[in-house]
Design goal:
170 residues, alpha/beta, five-stranded mixed sheet
């Protein structure tokens, strides 16, 4: 009998929408779904300025990144934390594109299987009026993320973990 792979809910904060256009990850987080106390979070000194609209959204300024770790440390530590576990993200294709880009820059192989709560909720609940992380947190989990403050990687990863658990028990 083979052991089941652990599942990690993840989230990234990025400077924009495309790593191919120079956007970078400046915060990364992961939560082990079956052991939420096992968490990883890193602020990354990525060498790219955070646009004002992103600063407003997450509350992190470019100057804050000076205290962060460099990408080689952040992604090595992230890779060590999640190992070959299954990753779960909301809008996973976005996270996958950034992880593949960052891993490739560092000579790492990105081979983790990744699941998407956005796609899974669209399939499981096709008549909902919205599927944003904020909307699903409110509708499915009764969590008001607007009252909880900023859009940050660790808090969003925790919400992804809860959404994943909700899907698994349904």
């Amino acid at each position: 009998m083979t052991a089941r792979k652990p599942v990690y809910a993840i989230d990234l904060e990025t400077t924009g929408l495309s790593p191919l256009q120079g956007d970078r990850v400046f915060e990364i987080a992961a939560v082990r779904v079956d052991r939420e106390a096992e968490q990883f979070q890193a602020l990354i000194n990525c060498g790219v300025n955070i646009p004002k609209n992103i600063e407003k959204l997450c509350g992190i300024r470019t100057a804050d990144l000076q205290a962060g770790v460099f990408p080689d440390v952040a992604f090595r530590d992230f890779k060590d934390f999640v190992g070959n576990g299954i990753l779960v993200a909301h809008n996973a294709s976005f996270d996958r594109s950034f992880l593949r880009y960052e891993y490739n820059n560092l000579g790492f192989d990105f081979s983790n299987s990744i699941r998407c709560t956005l796609k899974l909720y669209k399939k499981a609940r096709p008549r909902l009026p919205g599927y944003s992380l904020r909307y699903l947190a409110k509708k499915i989990l009764n969590l008001d993320l607007e009252r909880g403050g900023r859009h940050r990687a660790l808090s969003d990863a925790l919400v992804v973990a809860l959404l994943w658990k909700n899907l698994r028990k349904a």
